[in-house]
Amino acid sequence: VESGSAESLSLQVQGTGGSSAVSKCSAAARGYIQDRFLRLLAGRRRRRAPLIHRGYYIRARAVDHCVQDFLLKTQSLPRTQILSLGAGFDSLYFRLKDMGLLHHTVVYEVDFPNVASQKATLIKRMEELSALVGDTEGEGLGAITFSGDDYKLLGVDLSELSELERTLEEAGLNNEIPTLFIAEVVLTYMENTRSDALIEWAAEHFPQACFLVYEQVHPEDPFGHVMQQHFRQLNTALHSVARYPDCEAQQRRFLGKGWTECSVMDMNEFFTCCIPEDEQQRVQTLEPFDEYEEWHLKCSHYFVLAASKGMEPSWTPLLPSVTVPRHAGPVGMAGSVPAAVCARLSGIPGLRRYGHHSVLIKPNMILTTGGFGEEDGQHCRMRNFHVLSKHAGYWEDVCVTQNIPDKRWGERLYHTVSHLSDTLALVVGGRTSPSRAGLGMLWLKFPKTCHASGPADVSVELVSLQPAAEAAALRWRHSTTEVTFKGEQYLFVYGGRSALEPVLGDWCFLHTPELSYTAIAVEGPVPESRHSHSACSWEGGVLIAGGLGAAEQPLGSVFLLRALEHGFQWQTIETHPPLVPRYSHTAHVHEGKLLLVGGVWFHASSVPGVTVINLMTGLCLNYVINVEHLEWPLMLHNHSSVFLPNEKELLVIGGGGNCFSFGTHLNPEPVLLSLSSILISH
Question: CB of 190 within 8 A of CB of 159?
Fold first, then answer.
């Protein structure tokens, strides 16, 4: 690398450290982490989104968990040391010193020379910081930009190993005492040969040591593609993920480079296993939040690793063995389903959205409403209704009813639309902001005759409800399904969440078409509360599958609300092998088979494709979606899908989400999934 471009690259990498400090500072300001020093070190302050706060919370917790574990287990030793690689403007030393945890530990921090000198200047300028360090040993000399009794700040490029070794020796690092190395999103920015050499050097030169790593994994799935693209655009490409794409590969990396013990877990596992339930609940209620899919995907794309060598058995590992079933195990796939873009539907911005709803309003005509997406090049809540119609075997974008003037529509997300007749559909619930109350019910009325170009207009009318039925509407991420009782049609509104309740487990029956609230007896064990589940009409009742439960954990249960003479009964449908827990999927029933499409699960080794459950036998088979003919990542959550029984095809519309700090991904065009081979073979 020429020196000019190398310098430019190092500046870009340093930029990620500054951005990280600002995000951590914002998370601390909102109460996610307790750290009064971040605001002194971060410089500029900017409030980040709740999703970013959660992401930096879990990162801080993972690092703190391992660091404090190391200090606790080595507290009886006369001396230990911590070497933080690529420390940036991190506050670790000041927090540990303030907590009284550094009685016999020296902290060494290393970063690029200009970052280290900026931090040294900050510390000297801030009484609150310099007082904690105490007496400094003169001004910084050469690469040692700041030096106190138990704190040394060094300006060295980590990729220059011989220079690093010389400076550490000069600063007093002792190879013979137990040492904790920390690399928090650092190694991945280095060329693999250099980061591998650093890992090996640490193992060779330090007889008693631990190495803590926090960084990215799973570059090849849809979220991973968006993540990689983001870092490439910043000119800070991720190097490690290509050679070490999963947790097992990272574990093998350390074990093959001189480390004798190594434990690793992704952040979904860490949150579940290492954070107490009361703390999980505290974090989940700190601010209004409704981006579960992106939170769980972010967590499945980051890991924490703790490697060690030469340490007493009682000192290691820093991470517990995973006590819950390991998420990373591969999900068995029975085959694949081909995906293809729809001819004539490319480049239609109105279909780039998520959190919307699509419904067949008559054969070969699909209405899509609401969600968040792209309009006129801007990301916004979608006011436009969108109609697709099929002519001569092709789906066409036939009509967009522009800008519904009726404010009662409310630009809603996560609502349901039930098609009741050729001229009538019912919108139930949805939200604008997760901090606001859910939205009520609306009638969508279509003209009796829709010519080839689809309905020229869709009128929106507010539904007047009884007070008992009103509560049923004020929710989102719920389901609304048609059921039959004593020959009469009802809508069964179930589950979801509201501004006050993070998860609901109640239901109601609304008699159609006047929507009167009707009490109907329901017996049997009540399913646990859930939202983002799927619900399908079947044999007069409802099939409920998956969802996200009260602890923000995906559910793997399938229930049938079975129609009886005197009411309904909840029944569990046993599947074998057990259904992999998931949520944010869509579902359809065809000839006694339940089809689950996409969603989010914790099995980081693959993304959900199509799962087929035989409702007679309980056999549950997973199929991967073959995306080789797509030129972009297909994100199958927050999407909608319409099953076309004659063609045995699924039309998937929209999908995607706000991918942490990596940008918003919207599937650019509808996709057809051909199910003919799996429906015959199943």
Answer: yes
The domain covering 60-309 belongs, at the CATH homologous superfamily level, to Vaccinia Virus protein VP39 (3.40.50.150)
DSSP 417-436: EEEEETTEEEEE--BSSTTS
35-73 residue pLDDT tens:
999 999 987 788 899 999 999 999 999 999 999 999 999
Alpha-carbon distance of 184 to 19, in angstroms, equals 14
Q: How many CB atoms lie within 10 A of CB 234?
A: 14
CA distance 28 to 30: 5
User: What is the CATH code of the structural domain delimited by 333-674?
Assistant: 2.120.10.80
* Whole-angstrom distance, CA of residue 147 vs CA of residue 160: 21
For the purposes of burial, counting CB atoms within 10 Å of the CB of 391, is it exposed (0-12), middle (13-18) or buried (19 or more)?
exposed
Q: Quickly count: other Cβ atoms within 10 Å of residue 482's Cβ.
A: 16
- Nearest Cα neighbor of 527 from 548, 553, 552, 505 is 505
Distance CA 536, CA 542 (A): 5
Q: Which of 189-193, 377-381, 639-643 has the lowest mean pLDDT?
A: 377-381
**10 Å Cβ neighbour count for 487?**
6
Cα of first residue to Cα of last residue in the chain, in angstroms, is 55
Sheet bearing 365-369, strands edge to edge: 357-362, 365-369, 385-391, 394-401
Residue-wise pLDDT for 456-513, tens only, equals: 567 777 777 777 777 788 999 999 999 999 999 999 999 999 999 999 999 999 999 8
Segments making up each domain of the chain, as ranges: 60-309, 333-674
